[in-house]
Specification:
There is one protein chain. By secondary structure, the chain is of the alpha/beta class. Helix content is about 40%, strand content about 15%. It contains nine helices and eight strands. The longest helix has 14 residues.
Length: about 220
């Protein structure tokens, strides 16, 4: 894979709650140099300055992050504000407790509440926290309800859960489940080129990472 092709698949990410405005500015500067597809920052770091990024770089933020244990109304309100602040891609966390209990109708309704306030063609990525789910059936079900609720992507992980981040097995299963109808974002613990390329080979169409420079220099 060419470096520029992989770069366009990367969401260059800074979600440390202690990240300063200066660090966000540095992230944007690095994103511009690397040619990544998007930057992903916390909602209260938006809006970004008008000249922070080239027009080809999307602005992504997170919703209900990192626990997902927020009321649907709060997630929807957060999404409305994020769009008003210039976000064009939103990564929302499912209610993991509902997923663990198999309450998939509630998980779907939660996602749908956020989708309803995000106008096309803005993207909704749904974080299923794949490493924390109890088995493959739950990963499949999470992908199915995300698709039914109108998601554009399913995403492995927040990177904050103690269960871990992306795995090749989870990415492959997610890609098989959505079968090209949705994108698949691998995120959490991807720090080198070998791992990033393995995730792409497994079916990832996006990579969420903070080690973007290291990954691209590793090609």
């Amino acid at each position: 894979m060419e470096r520029a092709e992989l770069a366009r698949m990367i969401d260059h990410t800074l979600l440390d709650p202690a990240a300063t405005p200066g660090q966000v500015a540095l992230l944007c500067g690095e994103a511009s140099v690397l040619g990544v597809g998007a930057v992903c920052v916390s909602p209260n770091r938006l809006p970004l300055p008008a000249d922070a990024l080239p027009a080809s770089t999307a602005v992504c933020t997170v919703i209900g992050f990192p626990s997902g244990a927020h009321r649907s109304e709060a997630k929807a309100a957060e999404a409305v504000q994020a769009v008003a602040d210039g976000a064009t891609e939103l990564d929302m966390v499912i209610d993991l407790g509902w997923a663990m209990a198999g309450l998939w109708d509630r998980v779907e309704a939660d996602i749908a509440a956020v989708r309803a306030v995000i106008p096309e063609p803005l993207l909704l990525k749904v974080i299923i926290e794949s490493a924390a789910l109890p088995d493959d059936r739950a990963i499949v079900a999470a992908c199915q309800v995300a698709e039914a609720a109108g998601a554009d992507f399913v995403k492995t992980s927040t990177g904050f859960h103690k269960a871990g981040g992306a795995s090749l097995g989870a990415v492959a299963l997610m890609a098989k489940t959505v079968d090209g109808r949705l994108g698949v974002k691998a995120s959490g613990g991807i720090r080198d080129a070998i791992t990033a390329l393995a995730m792409v080979d497994a079916g990832a169409t996006r990579i969420g990472c903070s080690a973007s420079r290291t990954i691209l220099e590793g090609l």
